[in-house]
Design goal:
single chain; alpha+beta; 2 domains; six-stranded antiparallel beta sheet
């Protein structure tokens, strides 16, 4: 009988080759870093402040010599931990009046979440490193050619560090002029970010395992390598 072909894993369909040193290495030889930014309520600013922010944003766009991606992600807010804290506060209440107030507030929060969809908005800026220039990447042969796995991700990682470092510093300074703070997502935060992105339903109940020894996918190298089978021991005497 013909041998069955191994079933393709989900990992083979992802664009991510590895996540190391706060950099996401892609299978096509490119890499990205992700900055998480704060937000500003534009409507609450005065007219002068709004004009200053618009001019600062225009200056940011004019200063860019490389592409960026702005990602706004909305997800349903998980308040289970907050409700757990309220339950703990009820158990520590020293008088009945305080206990009643905590119960009323807990019921109000539960009712608010059940009737309204409370969303958590987060803002990100993605800075890419492209091993292939944009003019070459958009040619017809490059678009038709099948993507091949990265042969040397360590070489890609070192080149990405050199290329992305000045971009991170430049973009962080530019967004600070708008009144927005930006910080680089670290390796563990990136793993959790993509786990939550690809497993939106599961991640509400089960968080990403951030211990490197728990991974078996290519994102993290296994701590123990399989050893070669040992030679059978021989005993004295003849058989």
């Amino acid at each position: 009988m013909a041998a069955r072909k191994p079933t393709a894993s989900t990992q083979q369909h992802l664009d991510i080759e590895d996540i190391r040193d706060d950099i996401v290495i892609l299978k096509n030889g490119n890499a990205v870093v992700i900055l998480q930014t704060t937000a500003v309520n534009f409507d609450l600013l005065s007219e002068r402040e709004q004009d200053a922010m618009i001019f600062a944003y225009a200056a940011l766009l004019n200063s860019l010599t490389y592409p960026i991606q702005v990602l706004v992600r909305s997800k349903r807010l998980d308040i289970s931990n907050y409700l757990r804290l309220l339950d703990e506060a009820k158990q520590k209440a020293i008088n009945q009046r305080l206990l009643n107030q905590i119960e009323l507030y807990t019921n109000f929060v539960r009712d608010l979440v059940s009737k309204n969809q409370v969303l958590d908005k987060r803002f990100y800026i993605v800075i890419p490193y492209a091993a292939t220039p944009l003019t070459q990447a958009l040619t017809l042969p490059s678009l038709i050619k099948k993507k091949e796995p990265v042969e040397d991700k360590w070489h890609t990682l070192e080149k990405a560090k050199t290329n992305l470092g000045p971009k991170i510093e430049h973009l962080t300074k530019q967004v600070s002029r708008i009144g927005v703070k930006a910080r680089l997502l670290l390796t563990e935060e990136l793993v959790e970010f993509f786990y939550d992105l690809y497993n939106a339903d599961i991640s509400r109940e089960q968080k990403a395992a951030l211990n490197t020894q728990e991974y078996t996918t290519p994102i993290v190298e296994p701590a123990l390598q399989p050893s070669a089978p040992s030679e059978p021991e021989t005993t004295g005497g003849t058989q």
